[in-house]
Design brief:
The chain is built from 2 helices and 6 strands; from the N terminus they run αββαββββ. The protein is of the alpha+beta class. Strands 1-2-3-6-5-4 form a 6-stranded antiparallel barrel. A hairpin with a 2-residue loop joins β4 and β5. The longest helix has 13 residues. The chain is globular and about 50 Å long. It starts with a helix and ends with a strand.
């Protein structure tokens, strides 16, 4: 069993190995003061690694995450909403699912598809 300190060290090593930068774009509801709301966006710049899924991953992935064709690795504990979009290298990718590495949370793994 790993200690909390060892898990934190592994998460730091994983974060240091993220070579790309991405923008995480999420809708945010804001009260309009009259009982309703408007939607604005929140953007964060994060280190990441985005890769196409392997053919063997795609067969399993199709059943799990609504047609994702990419995986993104973000720093451990990154909060990501259900309607998030990841922008990386001029490409906009829609988040279709999240895989939490178990038993140790050393990274946040997202499943993505090209924005339609």
């Amino acid at each position: 069993m790993l200690t909390a300190e060892e898990i934190a060290d592994l998460a730091a090593e994983e974060a240091a190995a993220l070579p790309q930068t991405c923008r995480l774009i999420e809708p945010v509801p804001v009260s309009d003061g009259a009982g309703g709301f408007t939607v604005t966006t929140s953007e964060r710049t994060l280190p990441c690694r985005v890769e196409p899924l392997a053919a063997s991953d795609l067969a399993v992935n199709e059943r799990l995450s609504r047609g994702a064709s990419y995986a993104a690795i973000l720093p451990a504990g990154t909060a990501v909403g259900e309607e998030a979009v990841l922008s990386v290298g001029g490409r906009r990718l829609v988040v279709t699912g999240r895989l939490d590495p178990l038993p140790y949370p050393v990274a946040t793994v997202l499943l993505l598809r090209d924005e339609a």
